[in-house]
Design a protein that fits this description.
Length: 313
C-alpha cells in the first residue's frame, strides 16, 4: 500500500508539471518524499517514529491546502486518507488534534471559493470519518490490551507468565528506585504430583498464587515461570520489606490448609535490582540464592546479604 501511495503521488506530481503547475509539482514531490522517508526509514525510538509521522502528515496537509488553492475541489480527496492515517500512527488524542486542525484548515480554505453548502458537506464528511476511526481506534486499543493481558496470564493460577518479564523490567526502570526479586520454588513438588495426582498439584499451585497475591502491594507482580517456580517483583522496596514478604509467603504456605494434603514448603531466593541495574542479573542472583536455600535444607528464605530469620516462628 505504501508503494502504491508513493507511485500515485509521484504520478500526480508529474501530471502537475505537465499542466504548467511547476510549483504544485514541487510541493507534490516534497509530500511524496516525506511519505517515502517515513515508510522506508527503519529504526529509531517510538518518539522518533511519531515525530517522522507528524512531519509526514502535516507536510501532506500543506500540500493538499496548496493543491486546493491551485486546482480547486479535486485536491480535497487526499484529505481523507491522511485523517485515516493519523489514527494509525498516533495515539487517539494526538489523532483528534491532527484531524481537527486538518478539518479547520481544509474547510477554511474551501470557504474562500466554494459555496456554503459544499463547505458544510465537506466538513461533515471529514468529521464523520474522524469520528468513525476515533471509535475504531479506541476499540482496537481496548482489544489489544485484552489480548496482551490474556497472552501474559497463566490460565491455571491467574499469575502473569514469563512473557510478562520484559514488562516487569520496564516497570522497574520506570520506578527509578531499587526493586527486589523473589524466586520461589515448591520443595519436593514432584512427590505431590506422584502421590496425590496432578489435580492436587494444581490446587497447591493455585493456593500458593493466592497467598502470594495477598502478600504483595499494588504495582508488584506475581509471575509463574513454569512448573512449580514463581517469581515476584517488589517495586520501590528495601531488603527488610522484601525478606518480610518472602517470610510471610513461606510461613503462610507452610501453615495453610494445603498442608492437609501434603507437607508443602517453599524455598525462596531474594535479590536486589539496583537503580539502573539489569533485571536479568537480579533474576540470576535470586535463582542462586534459591538453590542455596535448597542446599541448606529447604523451607527457608535466602538473600544475597543475609539469611532472613523466620519472622513468624
Amino acid at each position: 500500500m505504501g508503494i502504491i501511495a508513493v507511485v500515485v503521488g509521484f504520478g500526480l506530481a508529474v501530471k502537475n508539471y505537465y499542466i504548467d503547475e511547476p510549483l504544485l509539482a514541487i510541493v507534490s514531490l516534497v509530500a511524496v518524499a516525506l511519505t517515502a522517508r517515513f515508510l522506508w526509514t527503519t529504526g529509531g525510538s517510538q518518539k522518533e517514529l511519531k515525530f517522522r509521522g507528524a512531519i509526514m502528515l502535516y507536510g501532506n496537509v500543506f500540500a493538499i491546502c496548496y493543491s486546493i488553492y491551485v486546482v480547486g475541489p479535486a485536491g480535497v480527496f487526499w484529505t481523507f486518507p491522511l485523517v485515516i492515517a493519523s489514527y494509525l500512527l498516533f495515539a487517539p488524542n494526538q489523532a483528534r488534534v491532527f484531524s481537527g486542525i486538518t478539518t479547520l484548515c481544509i474547510a477554511g480554505l474551501a470557504a474562500m471559493t466554494w459555496d456554503l453548502g459544499l463547505v458544510l458537506r465537506l466538513t461533515a464528511s471529514l468529521l464523520i470519518v474522524s469520528l468513525f476511526f476515533d471509535l475504531l481506534g479506541v476499540r482496537m486499543l481496548e482489544l489489544n490490551a485484552e489480548l496482551i493481558e490474556i497472552n501474559h496470564r497463566d490460565p491455571l493460577t491467574g499469575c502473569y507468565n514469563r512473557r510478562f518479564l520484559p514488562r516487569a523490567a520496564y516497570d522497574h526502570r520506570l520506578s527509578g528506585k531499587s526493586s527486589f526479586v523473589l524466586m520461589i520454588d515448591v520443595d519436593k513438588f514432584k512427590a505431590v504430583n506422584d502421590t496425590l495426582g496432578h489435580a492436587a498439584g494444581d490446587r497447591v499451585l493455585r493456593q500458593i498464587a493466592t497467598i502470594s497475591f495477598n502478600a504483595v502491594s499494588a504495582g508488584d507482580s506475581v509471575i509463574r515461570l513454569g512448573g512449580d517456580e514463581f517469581l515476584i517483583t517488589l517495586l520501590n522496596s528495601d531488603l527488610n520489606i522484601a525478606t518480610t514478604v518472602a517470610e510471610r509467603i513461606r510461613h503462610e504456605v507452610e501453615t495453610s490448609v494445603i498442608n492437609e494434603m501434603a507437607d508443602i514448603t517453599l524455598s525462596i531466593g531474594v535479590s536486589i535490582v539496583d537503580i539502573g541495574g539489569r533485571f536479568e542479573d537480579a533474576i540470576v542472583v535470586a535463582d542462586e540464592n534459591l538453590y542455596s536455600a535448597k542446599s541448606l535444607g529447604c523451607n527457608r528464605v535466602v538473600s544475597g546479604l543475609l539469611h532472613a530469620p523466620p519472622a513468624f516462628a
